[in-house]
# Entry
Amino acid sequence: MKKLFLPIILIVSFIGCNQKSDQHIITSDIQYFWEAFDKISSTQDSVLQYKYLDSLYLRKGTAGLKGIMEARDYTADDFISVINKYPKFWASVRENTFKTKQYSSELTTGIEKMRAIYPVLKPAKIYFTIGALSTSGTTIDSLVLIGSELAMSDKNTVSSEFEGAVQKGRQTYFDNNPINQLVVLIIHEYVHTQQKPALNNLLSYVLREEIAEFVSVKAMNVPSSTPAVQFGKQNPNVMNKFEKEMFYGNNRAQWLWSDSPNEFSTLDLSYYIGYQISELNYDLAEDKLAAIKEMIELDYTNEAQIEDFVDRTGFFSKSIEELYADFDKTRPRVLRINQFENNSTSVDPQTKELTFFFSEPLNGHNTSVDYVPLGEEYFPKLGVNRVWSADNQSWAVNVNVEPNKHYQFYISNNFRTETGTPLKSYLVEFKTRGN
# Structure
């Protein structure tokens, strides 16, 4: 049953200093950014703005800048947009971004503490760079990539230029003085460079993310500063809701890495879930170092291992197996195809439309049809005319099929109800007869 697979002693030195180790901090992107920023801000000529960005920042940037751009899909447009839209924000955070050097000693100590609880720690390079306001920290392979414009903000950083839920989220974040947690953040991201990739499902993301948080604060011997962790400990409804939604496969923004509002008015609530599971595993373990090693080295492709890691804590009300069974019973299903029986072997090649009927009304806008392992050649030509019935309990799509062909595709779980429950994926398979 594919329950979790629904459709993922350091010597610190600065640039210009003696780098005797293959592990070091690189900060030159910060100077490059502000040189570009000043030139961009001096003109309203968009052609010149892009020229300055490219020549003074993007081309001169380090592998860290290239990495954070890849990780967050940053483009030149993104940088120009945020520079022009948020001048007060940039002015308020500028001074802080030049404070990297004063954290070097503390960071060296932090990585030594991390090695003490995980002796096989592999080396990683740490890049302080400046992005376009979508991450305070991320990783690619063995690179720790710090978005200094967010990671080094504080309670004096201006959020007033942002709008709506984003403004509220930014203000809450700034009020927590992120710069005071800078070293813990870097250790957190450093842990990510040691972990295996998560799969594309909410539980994997949550475990991987908050194992890094738990291990980093354990190494530093400080409490987690993530508001969601304390909120979740005091509000059992967070766990109850997560139990029901962990298999949805289409609701990550409600739980993780998003400013999207939720009923609890607290961002990234799934951090509590992963943190609590990690903490319980640690508390139950007789060998604490072995527990840390197991957490960091979890294989997210090994479903049995992940289920055991979660179930042994007793955190959820039921086992993963049982929770999935409960979830599966609630899912809407495709009842039938109007034009023929599924798996038919003599479908009329003149068929121009397929109409799918569902077991209950869906939300009337989320749709998706996907290839199957057999590949693109088995996928029919679907047209742009895709129509919901008035009651949202059927959906029609125009189609062009050929004689004597085998077709196969999925009606996927991106179809969903108004409350977000995803459709059980449905394999459509048929063969057309000859003319």
About this structure: The chain has three domains: 8-194, 199-330, 334-431. The chain is about 40% helix and 15% strand. The longest strand covers residues 381-388. The chain has a mean pLDDT of 90.
